[in-house]
Amino acid sequence: MYMKGWNSVSAKLIGPDSGLQRLLDEGFEAEVHQQHLLVHSVPYVTAQRTVALGTLVCKYVENAGSVLPPRPPDDDHQVWWVGSFPARADGTFLTDLVADTQPHQLAVFEGCVAQHRFSNKPDGWSNYPDHYEKVTHYVTVIESQARAIDPDVNARTKRIIEPHEPDSVFRYADTASVRAEIMATSARLKLAKVAIVGLGGTGAYVTDQVVKTPVLEIHLFDGDDFKQHNAFRAPGAATKEDLLRRMKKVDYFLQCYDPMRGGIVPHSYYLDEGNVAELAGFDFAFVCVDKGKARKTVCEYLISQGIPFIDVGMDVVMHAETLELDGTCRVTTATRNKSDHIARCVPMDEDESDALYRQNIQVADLNALNAQLAVIKWKQLFGFYEDRFESYHAAYTVATQSLTRGERSEGPEA
pTM value? Predict the structure, then answer.
């Protein structure tokens, strides 16, 4: 039994105590997909006393090359069920499963939607020792009722699922989303191409967050070298050897994140009127530059192409009497349907209001905050986070710890 739009992935046989190999050896129709174990063709009884086939789904969490056993805190004894609610042979509901039955469907991961969630253990058990024991217990409870109607039914179909390579940019699995049960929500961020223009302090932290999402291609644009002062406004910790190599910023950050994922594309030059058209066809862009002319060129091009983007900016000042810093972090959003506010909300001249910031005063915390506000807004635009206010311009002020919002959308986004 398969669900529409599902690309099956073969089980990756790792973890000597996972129980997966034993399930396959016994002929179960099992596979692993997006950190979940699926067992297809499990016979069950419908409310009409007919025999149908359903699918059991449970977490299959990988950690450093092995599979964690199904017990807290990484997993539990519960499973999802794709199919109608299983019944006993007489047609009454099999309430022993203690199901979570919701009026809405339960999204397990992208392409997998379950109708119910079950919770059941053998008497006296606190947890299952492995996935074999977990799966076979649920199959026995469900299948035994179907065999009372048709003795020949068997979940051990001995059918082999053809292997396919996983469609992922990550070099190891995103177990954080699995543990939080937000795989289907995270998949909404699986955009084809995202640009990050400018890899200063804020752009570096934007990069740090975006690389941990399933965006297929992340294009980094910046012509600067990665220098010593940059190390104090960037995530992670650059080594002395990194600094001596005098790498371009885009190459330094590619080096940082390539061990985690593919799809990072460096562009070691600035965008200007002569090459800004390279942004054509992007799904989204983060504009993290500190020069008004460059910001104006990039923003105007993105608006002309209907490409949604977020522009970030910081304004840091020092009080001469106290030597204390005050600052503001700005996040301004534009979409195909809402961009008329950009000219009045985004500074595009070459004044010196941000001169102190451009002297590289170490304000990594503000850079990180500015980036996080931008990434949160990006995730709201694509349905990862709820967005009740739908603000297109926000500013955080350090001295008062206040966040102001404005420029709300007049209608639904395309």
Answer: 0.72
Residues 307, 315: contact at Cβ < 8 Å? Answer: no
For 15-68, the pLDDT digits (tens) are: 444 788 889 889 999 888 888 899 999 999 999 999 999 999 998 887 776 788
- Torsion region of 16: left, alpha or beta (phi above 0 gives left; psi -120 to 50 gives alpha): alpha
Q: Strand, helix or coil at 296? A: helix
φ, ψ for residue 292, nearest 5 deg: -60, -40
Q: Is 323 exposed, middle or buried (CB count within 10 Å of its CB: 0-12, 13-18, 19+)? A: exposed
3-class SS at 287?
Answer: strand
Count H helices and E strands in the chain, helices first.
Answer: 12, 16
Three-state SS at 193: strand
Exposure pattern of 282-319 as b/e (b: 16+ CB <10 Å)? bebbbbbbbebebbbbbbbbbbebebbbbbbbbbbbee
Backbone angles phi, psi at 278, to 5 degrees: -65, -15
**Contact residues for 158 (Cβ-Cβ < 8 A; gap 6+):** 27
Q: Is residue 11's pLDDT more than 50?
A: no
Hey, is 253 helix, strand or coil?
A: helix
- CA 283 to CA 309: how far, in whole Å? 9
Q: Measured between alpha carbons, how far is residue 329 from residues 124, 202, 304 in Å?
A: 56, 10, 26
Q: What angle do CA 22, 23, 25 make, to 5 degrees?
A: 60
Decide: helix, strand or coil at residue 196.
Answer: strand
On the question of pLDDT at 333 being above 70, the answer is yes
The phi and psi torsions of 241 (rounded to 5 degrees) equal -65, -40
